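Prompt: May I have another protein with tokenized structure?
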Amino acid sequence: MPWSPIIKAKPCSMPSDSPSDTEPWTILKTLHWTVDFFKRHHLDTARIDAELLLAKALKCQRIDLYIRHDQPLDGNELSIFKGLIRRRAAHEPIAYITGIKEFWSLPFEVTPDVLIPRPDTECLVETAVSVLTDRGFGDSARTLELGVGSGAITVALAHEYRNGRFFALDRSWAAICLAKKNAGRNLGDHRIHFFAGDWMDALSADRALFDMIISNPPYIPTADIATLSEDIRRFEPVAALDGGPDGLDAIRRILETAHLHLRPGGALLLEMGSDQRAAIEKYIDRLGHYSSVAFYKDYGGHDRVVLARK
């Protein structure tokens, strides 16, 4: 079904904030009403949100909504859908409602125990792939991720380097369990070694084992948390966002100890805030643990990734 009919159709006029149970609701009519409902609740992605949630309620693909546009919803389907749209109207993120978020063209299960993977973090993975290729590590690289969350970063890298050795830690056992599940879903093997720990505390300080250490640590200043969108500040784990007074608590802690666990010439890659470059560069210079520093931009042209070599 082409997209034009949904544009030309007349919007549904509803007397309340929920679809009526007294008349049949086709897929197309339900989509129209939901888009209008979401717009009235100030959701910027009303159309795609409506499609994703209706597809979940009907257990189908988004394209099927237009192929089956004149199919009415039965009472059970409508009831399930009502529950989903109420959750979204309360600004619960779509990824938590559907339970899935795509990253690096791979599906990842997400829960409120972990941050939702974002496109900007793909820049971190792209930089890691470039570094591993340029350094000639390739499939022989030993890579450690700090704060694995959903597993998106390490699973994406392991998907690119089938023979690499990957290690990932998190202080949240719920996150580790979810990351393991996503690794099995996308890789079908057990090449990633997961363990619990608080940054570097779980590692032996007398062995430099890794070619790369990578992390997307908390880097938002505490005072800025309250200014984030409602979707983020109310639903995503604050511990994975809050980087302390200046946003650099976790980044400083990693920089202070990562060199102990990197092989000579090994790379430390961190995601960072777009306004933190000067402070990070100054701190790295003061530490004296790293021989070179480079910064990489995200898709919006903002500084997003710092690379420091041992």
